[in-house]
């Protein structure tokens, strides 16, 4: 997730091809990505300009590091909902459907990365953000679409906001539901899940008040370790009993397929991190390709998601919950530990998940309208608090 910084390293942009607003954005992105001006003025057709050769990243990531980040960004609460997704599709239809959706997602990501590269080559800039890619795609397309170019960035930002805030809402529901599951076992009266949301609200606001990603990184590392251990324990519960296809649906009615499709798409797609990861690579050419970072990551992700969905559904059948953690034996201390650990892991990474939404809202639409530094600081905390309240509402 990238934040926007001031620039001191502008580069030449062809003003006849790019609007003043787009030019300003390119300069900001060059500073953000460490871009440098081309040593030799490229030809008008742009074939002498290679965006990869003009990127200067302060801390470039290796192929393996990028692979790890991509896996980390994709393996979240979505994988725990895969057994429920298979209940809505059937174990045969679900397996085939997950593979097909995974293929479509991978293809679309490849197209996005290729489009960014081609637009960067034509505009002679090292990298672009999502809004810039959309805007310049319209500028490079038929003349009919040129008039929509100034507005498309807002459309893209809107969808990114909806996606990121939706993920944060899922995080809050997941944490509250698992806390409720543990509390109900020890208390005489069942706890309202909304009460659990209120309890976690104030600390959640404080987590999202952290303005520097550097201070959130340790929480992400801890959460990753907890998540891996928890997944191992969940697999133990799934595989400790023999599977059977009796009373399991091979192909569910089509009316429930949209629920399957939405769950799998939410679980698989980590579209918000694709371009930032590719732009930060030491060897960005290795991101694509038949054996590139993206394909390797997506094969592993689809395999893990299909396995969790298939075997989780075969184990629990129609009784599978929205999150498989809720199907674990409530009396087992080990199962309670898994619920608590995953709830804690997701809870402390809420700030990272909400960072993109805060960044878009604050830097693209609010900060430029404020004059004094004091007012900026006050309203930034208001925005951060409001985002948390939206996800908990």
TrEMBL record:
Membrane-spanning residues: 91-113, 155-179, 191-210, 222-239, 259-277, 289-313, 333-358
Protein's cellular compartments: Membrane
InterPro entries hit by this protein: AA_transpt_TM
Its membrane topology: Multi-pass membrane protein
Main location: membrane
Recorded GO CC terms: vacuolar membrane
Keywords linked to the UniProt accession: Membrane, Transmembrane, Transmembrane helix
One Gene Ontology molecular-function label: L-amino acid transmembrane transporter activity
Domain Amino acid transporter transmembrane: 60-391
PANTHER family referenced in this protein's UniProt entry, alphabetically: AMINO ACID TRANSPORTER, PROTON-COUPLED AMINO ACID TRANSPORTER 4-LIKE PROTEIN
Record's protein name: (Mediterranean fruit fly) hypothetical protein
Upper lineage: Eukaryota, Metazoa, Ecdysozoa, Arthropoda, Hexapoda
């Amino acid at each position: 997730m990238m934040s926007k910084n001031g620039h001191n390293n502008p580069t030449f942009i062809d003003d006849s091809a790019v609007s003043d607003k787009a030019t300003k954005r390119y300069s900001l992105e060059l500073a953000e990505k460490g871009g440098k001006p081309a040593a030799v003025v490229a030809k008008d057709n742009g074939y002498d300009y290679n965006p990869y050769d003009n990127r200067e990243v302060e801390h470039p990531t290796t192929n393996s590091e990028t692979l790890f980040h991509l896996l980390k960004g994709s393996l979240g609460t979505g994988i725990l909902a895969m057994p429920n997704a298979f209940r809505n599709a059937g174990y045969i239809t679900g397996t085939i459907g997950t593979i097909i959706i995974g293929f479509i997602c991978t293809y679309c990501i490849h197209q996005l990365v290729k489009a960014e590269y081609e637009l960067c080559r034509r505009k002679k800039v090292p990298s672009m953000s999502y809004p810039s890619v959309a805007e310049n795609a319209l500028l490079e397309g038929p003349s009919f679409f040129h008039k929509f170019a100034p507005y498309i960035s807002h459309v893209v930002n809107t969808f990114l906001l909806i996606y990121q805030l939706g993920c944060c809402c899922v995080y809050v529901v997941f944490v509250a539901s698992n806390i409720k599951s543990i509390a109900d076992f020890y208390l005489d009266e069942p706890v309202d899940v909304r009460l659990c949301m209120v309890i976690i609200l104030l600390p959640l606001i404080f987590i999202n008040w952290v303005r520097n990603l550097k201070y959130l990184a340790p929480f992400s590392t801890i959460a990753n370790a907890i998540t891996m251990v928890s997944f191992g324990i969940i697999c133990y519960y799934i595989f400790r009993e023999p599977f059977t296809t009796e009373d399991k649906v091979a192909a569910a009615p089509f009316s429930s397929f949209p629920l399957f499709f939405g769950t799998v798409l939410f679980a698989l797609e980590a579209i918000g991190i694709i371009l930032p990861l590719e732009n930060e690579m030491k060897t960005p050419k290795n991101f694509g390709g038949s054996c590139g970072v993206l394909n390797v990551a997506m094969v592993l992700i689809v395999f893990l998601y299909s396995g969790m969905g298939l075997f989780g559904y075969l184990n629990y059948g129609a009784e599978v919950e929205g999150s498989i953690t809720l199907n674990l034996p409530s009396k087992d201390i080990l199962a309670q530990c898994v619920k608590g650990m995953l709830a804690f892991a997701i809870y402390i990474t809420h700030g990272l998940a909400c960072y993109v939404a805060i960044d878009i809202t604050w830097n693209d639409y609010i900060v430029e309208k404020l004059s004094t530094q004091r007012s900026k600081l006050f309203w930034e905390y208001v925005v951060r608090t409001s985002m948390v309240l939206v996800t908990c509402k």
